[in-house]
Amino acid sequence: MSTITFDAVSVGDTLPPLRLEPVSRTTLALFAGASGDHNAVHIDLDAVRRAGMPDVFAHGMLSMAYLGRLLTQWVDQRQLRQFGVRFVGITQIGHQITCSGRVVEKFETNGERRVKVEISTANQYGETRIVGDAVIAL
């Protein structure tokens, strides 16, 4: 993480992308244990097949955590003022996720200089899985 200043950032600037290892069953098991989210669709092949899906798939919050990592590798977490996402696709076992971000607005609120960043995840096929935004104090 480097020290980013408001004056050094321009609308259109991109954050350094975060490329992750392919999602594995081990990743899902570890995340389930860490988060307490043991929903069967993420860890139980029999249950997910009964639900009509071919295989278990990643927790949406795992991908949101990856986006959190993207942001906190760019700025200190204490600078985050807002962070939200919308889930638009399922991240399957074997998907290699890349997180990206782009500055879309610079503004001031209550004397604090801030930027709004659009963020997203996409798999190795370029399919978007999550979209969102964050507001960061600089």
Strand count: 5
CATH topology: Thiol Ester Dehydrase, Chain A
Nearest-integer average pLDDT = 95
Rg (C-alpha, Å): 17 Å
What is the number of independent domains? 1
The CATH superfamily label reads Hotdog Thioesterase
User: What are the segments in which pLDDT stays under 50 over at least 5 consecutive residues?
Assistant: none
Structural class: alpha+beta
Number of helices: 4
**What is the string of SSEs from the N terminus onward?**
EHHHHEEEE
CATH architectural type:
Roll
CATH class: Alpha Beta
**Cα distance spanning the termini:** 13 Å
Q: How many strands, what sense, and barrel or not for the largest sheet?
A: 5 strands, antiparallel
Portion in beta strands: 25-35%
Approximate shape: elongated
Strand order of the largest sheet: 1-3-4-5-2
Assign a percent range to the helix content. 25-40%
Question: Tags for this entry?
Answer:
138 residues; alpha+beta; Thiol Ester Dehydrase, Chain A; five-stranded antiparallel β-sheet; 4 helices; elongated
Describe the fold and architecture:
The protein has 138 residues and is α+β, with helices and mostly antiparallel strands. The protein has one domain: Thiol Ester Dehydrase, Chain A (Roll), CATH 3.10.129.10. Helix content is 26%, strand content 31%.
